[in-house]
Amino acid sequence: MIRRNLISIIVIVSIAILCMVGMVFADGMNLVFSEDFSEDEIGAFPSRLVVDRGRIEYLRVVEDSTAVGGKALMIMGDPETNDTRVHVELPELLFFPPVFEIEFSLRVENSDGTNFYLNDSEAVAFLIISPKDGKLRYNLKDDIATLDSGWNRIKLVVDLETAKVYVYLNNMDVPILGPASFYKERQCTAREGLYLRYQLSRGTKHPDFEGEIYIDDIKVRMAGPNTELAFSL
User: Fold this and answer.
1) Rounded mean pLDDT of 72-90?
2) CA quadruple 226, 227, 228, 232: dihedral sign
3) Structural domains in the chain?
4) Residue 219 forms beta bridges with which residues?
5) Are 125 and 118 in contact (CB under 8 A)?
6) Contact indicator for 199, 85 with CB cutoff of 8 Å
7) What is the mean pLDDT of the segment spanning 70-92?
8) What percent of the chain shows pLDDT beyond 90?
9) Cα(107)–Cα(37) distance, integer angstroms
């Protein structure tokens, strides 16, 4: 009887420890960047994103009553340049595991030439998300979900150590894809200089492209010291 009770206690304690580790991992994801454009001027470039290439007519903050802060970032294909680009710089990953989440809202009016990239400082692409013809496509080849006609909430959970990605759409509890490999099975050793780029192509190469998208409520979370402690238990 004593032995049976001891085994039961050990099992219960083990389950409790596992639950605690899971809770610490979830709590260990720290919000490091948040932008809903509510503090930006209407008609201006976004103040906290980096504009790589774009004219104000095709890349600017606009009023939008359906957006979180009443404003959103409009990005359109520019007929006079090959592409319109803007990116979010990611802070350096200081803790183990090198895991981060990027979450944002997307509304697509026209998906022509639209791609989102995770790049390093050498502009090497590790993943590509594309809204194409009402679908969400991963790494230029796999249609993984159907987009709503209004706002869509997209979350990417990226593990640099394993070079894997999980993609969530609207229902944030269950991934629609993952674990999925990086683009062309690439590995990423960088822990700083990473960025998420929103890009719409047009120009003389694609004169018929008339892409138009809206971005809102960008959030970036990264593993913190609590996450490291959880993995050391």
Assistant:
1) 96
2) positive
3) 30-223 (2.60.120.200)
4) 34, 103
5) yes
6) yes
7) 96
8) 78
9) 15
